[in-house]
Amino acid sequence: MTRRYWNINLEEMMEAGVHFGHGARKWNPRMSPYISAKCKGIHILNLTRTARFLSEACDLVFDASSRGKQFLIVGTKNKAADSVARAAIRARCHYVNKKWLGGMLTNWSTTETRLQKFRDLRMEQKAGRLARLPKRDAAVLKRQLSHLQTYLGGIKYMTGLPDIVIIVDQQEEYTALRECITLGIPTICLIDTNCDPDLADISIPANDDAIASIRLILTKLVFAICEGRSSYIRNP
């Protein structure tokens, strides 16, 4: 795997609150190697280890994107949703930021059918055909289109299973993580002090509740993906 310098700054991570974990009562004992202290009942993450694993994750996504691999970013809780969409759009990745529909990956044939229905309805709307339908029929199809846009809009161009999945908040996205494990899809996961660090291929210890923390981690990963894509374009 290529080793590169990703400008991961401990002071920058502290300013973003990456080091703040959950309350000590809610911790997972398997996270003890990643915790450096406890302050006022809050576990404090070891940012040196965070930087190490974030760097490894950046190396992984750089190498993958430089070989034309496809990524899916998953983060559906309110604090993560906007950051996930912006990061994914910037790096031309697929994303899910509203709700993970069970079987989205493990039952891919059903997901493909839904995506085709979504694409067909979008074409119908763009062509103005929905406007020519009876009002009741048009209203039903518009509701279907709105529903599909909400839950599948971020993966509308996905034509197969992703090569790597980036997950924000292991606890919130546990179903998505289990589907990746079942299918053998490599995962990169933000893990707070209440998570299991052994489930993902690369676990990045970080505050998964603070918007600034989520945004910082995603920004580093997205930069590495974009750098890899530039390399892929230059050296097809």
TrEMBL record:
TM spans (from-to): none
One Pfam family cited in the UniProt record for this chain: Ribosomal_S2
CDD domains listed in its UniProt record: RPS2 (cd01425)
GO molecular function ontology, one term from the record = structural constituent of ribosome
Identify the GO cellular component terms for this protein. Answer: chloroplast; mitochondrial small ribosomal subunit
Organism per entry: Caroxylon laricinum
Which keywords does UniProt give here?
Answer: Chloroplast, Plastid, Ribonucleoprotein, Ribosomal protein
Give GO terms for biological process. translation
Question: Which PANTHER family does this chain map to?
Answer: 30S RIBOSOMAL PROTEIN S2 PROKARYOTIC AND ORGANELLAR, SMALL RIBOSOMAL SUBUNIT PROTEIN US2M
Q: Where in the cell is it found?
A: Plastid, Chloroplast
Q: What is this protein called?
A: Small ribosomal subunit protein uS2c
Which family would the database say this protein is a member of?
Belongs to the universal ribosomal protein uS2 family.
Question: Which NCBIfam families does the record match to this protein?
Answer: rpsB_bact (TIGR01011)
Q: Carries keyword Ribonucleoprotein?
A: yes
Encoding gene, per UniProt annotation: rps2
